[in-house]
Amino acid sequence: MKNFPPTMWIPPTSNSANGSLPCSSELRLDHGNIRIFTTPRRIVVSIDSLSPNQPDREDLVKGPPADKAFDKDGKPTQAALGFAKKNNLDPATLEAREIDGGKYVAAVVKQKGRPTPEVLVDALPKLVESIKFEKSMRWNDSGIAFSRPIRWYVALLGDMVIPFEYAGVVSGNISRGLRPYGSPDITIPSAEKYFDVIREAGILLDKEERKASIVEQVNQAAALLGGEAIIEEGLLNEVTNLIEMPTAVMGGFNEEFLSLPRDVLISVMKKHQRYFPVRKVGAQHAAPLLPNFLAIRNGDDIHIDTVREGNEHVLGARFADANFFVREDVKLKLEEYRPKLSALTFHTKLGSMLDKSDRILKLGAEVGAMLGFKGVDEIKPLGRAVYLAKADLVTQMVTEMTSLQGIIGGEYALRSGESADVALAISEQYQTVPQSKVGVALALADRIDSLVGLFGAGLAPTGAKDPFGLRRAAIGVVQPLIEHGMDFDLALIVQKSAKTQPLEVTADAQKQILEFIAGRLKVVLGDMGFKHDVIEAVLAAQSNNPAGTVRAVKQLSAWVGREDWSSILDGFARCVRILRSQTVDNGQWTVDESRFVDKEEKDLYQAFQKRSAFNRPPSTNF
Fold first, then answer.
1. Long-range pairs of 298-305 with CB within 8 A, sequence gap ≥ 24
2. Is the pLDDT of residue 612 over 80?
3. Rounded CA gap, 604 and 598, in Å?
4. pLDDT, average across residues 99-114
5. Which residues 6+ apart lie within 8 Å of 340 measured at CB?
């Protein structure tokens, strides 16, 4: 018959929790499968086939050196007597052994395995203590910190309670049910019956099962409303981790709120209320929304009409606020907000957001030229988009919902009469990979300015700390260039950006910036599946043009995959070594054909001349 170790849950849990089970090598307990489940109120650990006790063991214990353990007559010294007493040994049984290249007193110490309940009594408090959170709280006189107050433990080995105490709470066999039902006590007769008892209480322990249930209910409810639900993975995970018994609730709101920008409606429903919006069926990604939402209740459908009314009331109030903010904001054109950026500090050493906006306006022109922007039709939208890019930061709507920065700017740009190209670039400036060319140029200018300015101010990321999101900014420089295949000289643009900063950005700081971006490029290339050695080889030769680096990595990967790569590499390396010291005249080698002797030499040179595209010195640059 299987033995089941403690099935524990500790309210509450979170995705940010980090902990580990005591390893079997430490506890010396054989076991079968370990399963872990989490809900907002409980952490459950279930272990199959746990052995009833530890195995007996024999350990060779090393003592003092032999010359210190025995006197000249061979009698044990005080050091040997102390060693014997510590290990409960008869001093007469001590003997010298060869250990680690020397002679030491040693003893074989036999240790009888402890019963499993006894081992777990010591191990379980340590297990709870090992669970760490980014944010913790203290709630009672114990002074123990956890994400939320711990209210109960269930610790069972079969039908035996494993008694322990931690944070002022004593373990038992009593769990608690759903919060909406008043958290009734639930007696767990044995670990083996735990899962059935908890399911009968309506609690779904498995996160994936809860997630699947939410998706199914939300899709069914949306179909009943004549639309389809917008289910984003981030929101789905958040809702899944907030409930134990999911039940979908259909609600609606006043159709007049549909005049608000679509992204405002979605953001209010998602961020503030954690609702799933509903859009019309069969339309594109930006399809018009229906005046409905889908909420997930933690509980059953009893009094669900009251729940619906409460959710509708709260959402209506949120939309009314948003409607007021938008109505007030659009009384001014977007460009009229730009001067107000002077009151918003970017960084004390780098000035206001208006100062930053002025810098990226200058840098944007350089970026555009480097990306090949030509003619009024390309240059004018870029200049206008960069000029207006940060203006929405001082609007009431963005002040209330910072996640809408850029998106609201694009919306207000259209309402201010700006072109669609300008509005699109503003709206996608914070995306990792903007899709429009103007959007890419704007994003590059913004991110390069942040990297150069903050590095110049001595604020480079250290370890895990990156308060200004510079790693994300560097990724945002690299990825658009790669995905759009845009050749771009990072060294040159860093140099140009350094000249616009209000402080000196030294050559060493510029070098550090380029190395930092190259490090992010290395990560991106690794995520693309390229081999480590190929990435290292190419980055050693070039890293200032991400798109060119990717092409080189692809080319080198193809060569490395050839069966004759080894011989090709040896031959190429030999040519490089031979020609490294040779003089070059205007990019061409000076060849004295009169010195050719063999026919093969002459034929090779003729073939080489025909391939004029390759008539240049060999280089390790790809």
1. 298/178, 298/179, 298/180, 298/242, 298/243, 298/244, 298/245, 298/246, 298/247, 299/178, 299/180, 299/181, 299/202, 299/245, 299/247, 300/202, 300/245, 300/247, 301/247, 304/247, 304/249
2. no
3. 10
4. 81
5. 394
Per-residue model confidence (pLDDT) at position 621: 34
Looking at residue 283, its pLDDT comes to 60
Name the residue type at position 396: Q
CA distances to 292, 471, 622 from 612, rounded to whole Å, are 67, 43, 18
N-term to C-term CA, the chain: 65
* pLDDT for the residue numbered 285: 63
pLDDT digits 0-9 by tens, 415-446: 999 999 999 999 999 999 999 999 999 999 99
Is the separation of the CB atoms in 246 and 301 below 8 Å? no
| Tokens standing for residue 549 | 């680096």
Question: Which H helix or E strand runs over 156?
Answer: strand 156-157
Tell me which residue of 486, 212, 285 sits closest to 373, measured CA to CA.
Answer: 486
Question: Is residue 248 scored above 70 in pLDDT?
Answer: yes
Residues sharing a CB contact under 8 Å with residue 97, sequence separation 6 or more, in sequence order: 103, 104, 105, 106
Query: Under a CB-based contact definition with an 8 Å cutoff, are residues 405 and 398 in contact?
Result: yes
**Pick from 172, 125, 175: nearest CA to 146:** 125
Q: How far is CA 458 from CA 266, 350, 577, 598, in A?
A: 39, 12, 42, 63
Q: How far is CA 157 from CA 25, 39, 45, 170, in A?
A: 20, 22, 12, 16
DSSP state, residue 244: S
Is 37 in a helix, a strand, or coil?
strand
Residues 6+ apart with CB under 8 A from 144: 129, 138, 150, 166, 167, 168
CA 389 to chain CA centroid, nearest Å: 27
In the predicted structure, residue 585 carries a pLDDT above the cut 80 = no
Q: What is the pLDDT of residues 346-397, one digit of tens each?
A: 999 999 999 999 999 999 999 999 999 998 999 999 999 999 999 999 999 9
% pLDDT > 70, the chain:
92
Token pair recorded at residue 203: 């609690």
Whole-angstrom distance, CA of residue 365 vs CA of residue 370: 9
Residue 588: both structure tokens together: 């061409």
Copy the structure tokens of residue 253.
Answer: 């709101």
Supply the pLDDT for residue 439: 97
> Mapping DSSP to helix (H, G, I), strand (E, B) and coil, where does residue 190 land?
coil
Q: Which residue's structure tokens are 């991106």?
A: 524
CA distances to 393, 398, 450 from 363, rounded to whole Å, are 20, 25, 12
Beta bridge partners of 43: 38
Residues 216-228 pLDDT 10s:
999 999 999 999 9
The SS3 assignment for 556 reads helix
On the question of pLDDT at 306 being above 60, the answer is yes
The whole-angstrom separation of Cα 400 and Cα 267 is 11
Q: What is the pLDDT of residues 123-143, one digit of tens each?
A: 999 999 999 888 899 999 999
